[in-house]
Amino acid sequence: MGKTKSKFVCQQCGYESAKWMGRCPGCSEWNTMVEEREEKEEKRWLSHRMEKPIPFNEVKGETAPRIQIGFRELDRVLGGGIVPGSFTLVGGDPGIGKSTLLLQATHQFAREGRKVLYVSGEESPAQIRLRGERLGIKNENLFLMAETNVETIIEEAKKLKPTLVIIDSIQTMFLPEISSAPGSVSQVRETAAALLRFTKREEIATILVGHVTKQGEIAGPRILEHMVDTVLYFEGEAHHTYRILRTVKNRFGPTHEMGVFEMKEKGLVEVQNPSELFLSERSLAAAGASITATMEGTRPILVEIQALLSPTLFPTPRRVATGLDYNRVAMILAVLEKRAGILLGSQDAYVNVVGGMRLNDPAADLAIALSLVSSYRDRPIPYHDLLIGEVGLTGEIRGVPRVEQRIQEAYQMGIKRVILPRINLQGIEFPGEMKVSAVETLTEAIDEVLGR
Ligand code: TYD
Ligand code: MG
Known about the structure:
The protein has 452 residues and is an alpha/beta fold. It folds into 3 domains: 4-39; 65-271, P-loop containing nucleotide triphosphate hydrolases (Rossmann fold, 3-Layer(aba) Sandwich), CATH 3.40.50.300; 277-450, Ribosomal Protein S5, domain 2. Helix content is 25%, strand content 25%. Strand 7 (164-168), helix 5 and strand 8 (205-211) form a beta-alpha-beta unit. Helix 4 (150-160) runs parallel beside helix 5 (185-202), helix 7 (326-340) packs across helix 8 (365-377) and helix 8 packs across helix 10 (442-450). 42% of the residues are buried. The model has no long low-confidence stretch (mean pLDDT 88). It binds thymidine-5'-diphosphate and magnesium ion. Thymidine-5'-diphosphate (TYD) binds at residues 92, 94-100, 131, 134-135, 263, 265-267.
């Protein structure tokens, strides 16, 4: 037992230093270093550790039997259900609907006769009940607990023996032996570590709720991402009712999987066909709009990409990308200038993914590029066209994975023609009367879709 020392910990990323710094060297955020007392010795986090090395062949394989929650979109995102003994983090902005989602999930889960413990450090059981009643929840296997002391929670959970424990939220939890306030990096890390040990030992599935704030006042659940088995993010735009649940990390299944919900009066409703939702407000034949098929995990989703170009009033043009990576859009603008000879230097450019989706799939490049050209020329892209392809720096259209799945989804959504990278033509079967245009360069694609 050494004596307690002081250290400074970044509340954003968990970077530690012996002296205070105005700017965290770890994440470059300002004013995030807070003094915390160092605790005696490092605790062991790994709960399923083994005493000595054992031969690979003799390790007992865990088959990870999944338990379906019964909330389909959530089960999909988890990789087909929740694994007993798994430790999951659900992160998201405050007010996005995390508590609502999990309360609804616990209801589904408890209906099958399994016990669920819902621990809230933010609301009283009366408040949760009130909300639950509005959501139509009535269940004798669902147990509520308003508590923030993790030791008490673990003690009670040991007695109750639930199959699933929800901790809402990790930022409100504390361990009495740690001096810093709930929500500080030390508390978040240590309470999570205690819950992790408990989860693994008792083979109970635990879901932590973590608020993400941009200011970094509360310890971002970023530091938890390394500890948990699965990280889900719940996102959505404040002015939209759609909510998207994404897998960022999953030790038991695929990542980048997503589930789509709509926040309604009576809670979250699963959206069975996201493409339909994202295309529901399309306007007929507007210049600057195009459709692409993005792969979100194993699922293809059709989205509309809109672009607007307008003459710049200032020396440097504005470039705004919503739902897309800014640098990606900047690159596409540069390729359009240099390789397709479309001079956009005097134009402000706005690019937007309709419906509040966020795209990372490079297959959307071609749709971004053509939406920009379509707006610039004020000439609409044919309404039933689908554009897929990655744009390379030399203006070439590069192949993308899972073309068949994307096209199948597009066909179901009434797409009549697909413009795709030539390399993707090989070995693909096209449904029915779908027309196909294979392109090799950006110029070729522009000519094909918008004419010369
Ligand atoms: P909540 O689950 O409390 O968010 P979080 O736990 O992520 O902070 O959701 C709060 C918002 O959801 C609140 O603005 C009201 C809205 N909401 C509905 O629109 N319908 C509902 O049935 C419920 C329960 C909440
Ligand atoms: Mg909440």
